[in-house]
Amino acid sequence: MKLLTAAQTRALDQATTQAQRISSVELMERAATACTNWLLDQLQPAFSTEIHVFCGPGNDGGDGLAVARQLHTAGYAPQVWLLPAEKHSADFLHNQQQLPEAIRCQELSARRLPPLPAGALVLDALFGTGLTRTLEGLPATVVKHLNQSAATVVAVDIPSGLLADAPQPASSAIVRAHHTLSFELPKLAFLLPRNAEFVGEWTVLPIGLDQPFIHNTTVDNYFVDAALLAGRLPQRARFSHKGTFGHALLLAGSYGKLGAAVLAAQACLRGGVGLLTIRTPGVGYTILQTAVPEAMALPDPASDFVTELPELHPYAAVGMGPGLGQEESTAEVLRLLLQQVGSRRALVLDADALNLLGTHRELLQKLPPNTLLTPHPKEFERLVGEPALDDYHRLDQLRAFCREHRCYCVLKGAYTALGTPDGPVYFNSTGNPGMATGGSGDVLTGLLLALRADQRLSPLDAALLGVYAHGRAGDLAAAESGEPGLIAGDLVRFIGPALRELEGDL
């Protein structure tokens, strides 16, 4: 699913009216109907609900007026509040003329702000994606009034005051919506951490916008859903064998952190790897042979941490990091790995391998092309060497880092962002807060290692499938145990079902 800019969204609306030979008013009616139907699903049969519709002077306000009319037809009694303006859009004026006399329509002022009691519903249709500056004056006062109320706030297309794809000052006046109803596609702003308090729960409402335009539009950002991944994970041929799916080497574990190695190894096996060998300190040998009997254990001469790199020629992919520790001798193993792994052998780096890269930044220049890194935000900050100014700056850092080092970078979060060497960023749609638990990242590393060992998959497809399936496994696990009770081991159990959902035809 593509994430369009605000300018591209406006062009999409225009392309739709031209391709489908409809007026902009007809398209607005279609959008309003989608909003109304969503609201009716939430409201029925509570006809006593107090409904307030706040409308700005542009097309977003026109949407609000159309929804108010449709709610009135459905038996509700919405109250409409208008921002005063010298100029209104043509579609706003059309819908204002269509309002029945029974709908109360009042102009807002700083001294005339309606009480919004708990239990009331507020529809925010003040400003949409066309907004290019922060709100001031009366609009800002109205937004503050909405945010201080106890009413449930539903935003039309985007919360008023929130820019769709650009940073803004922390002090900006922005509606704090409980729900946001986006037309056809989500907005980039919905996926960034700072905006969660404004967007609330968001829903995409299809309104039949022109699909050829969307298909032919070049974008910098994607939202990864099952439709985007369709056909990327082929089914297994009947005459497949272990070699078909690759032999992976996992360097993981140190004294006191062998659980990370166990979780990563189990996830790699559940991810479908043909063979797995684990390089682990001597203290981990018995543990791994017992906990992961399907894997081969290759103990290091040192007891407590990894100090030597084994021969790499048997392996299609190498993963390094979970529970590894940051001893200087382990840093030397990483240095040797980057020198010897070559461009034909896939490489996945996580956890302490990333911390070692951040400490020994000269090693970043030795990353082979298509290396896959999986940092959380703090680890990423160490890799780039400076904190991000805001969420958009962090995305710029991600693109620049991936271009410079010709790598893929999984920046973990609520909507995990996958940076690519070519520039596009892919935001993941699966996962839940229950996955914020120790070991979840180790499971992701093992799963990605398995998919990178599979020679049928491109680096991009392996990364997309791994991140999506990891989140999907978390969703399946949460459905069974609940989010608070979810542990990393639960993710391992649901990797198989998550991948099964993604398997396509041969």
Automatic annotation (TrEMBL):
UniProt entry tagged with the keyword Translocase: no
Protein's recorded name: Bifunctional NAD(P)H-hydrate repair enzyme
InterPro entries: Carbohydrate_kinase_pred_CS, CARKD, Nnr, Ribokinase-like, YjeF_N_dom, YjeF_N_dom_sf
Binding site for AMP: K412, G413, A414, Y415, T416, G441
UniProt keyword annotations, A-Z: ATP-binding, Isomerase, Lyase, Metal-binding, Multifunctional enzyme, NAD, NADP, Nucleotide-binding, Potassium
Positions annotated to bind (6S)-NADPHX: G128, T129, G130, L131, T132, R133, T134, D157, A260, G323, H376, D442
Domain YjeF N-terminal, first and last residues per copy: 9-215
Similarity section: In the C-terminal section; belongs to the NnrD/CARKD family. In the N-terminal section; belongs to the NnrE/AIBP family.
Domain YjeF C-terminal: 225-502
Organism: Hymenobacter canadensis
Binding annotation for K(+): D124, S160
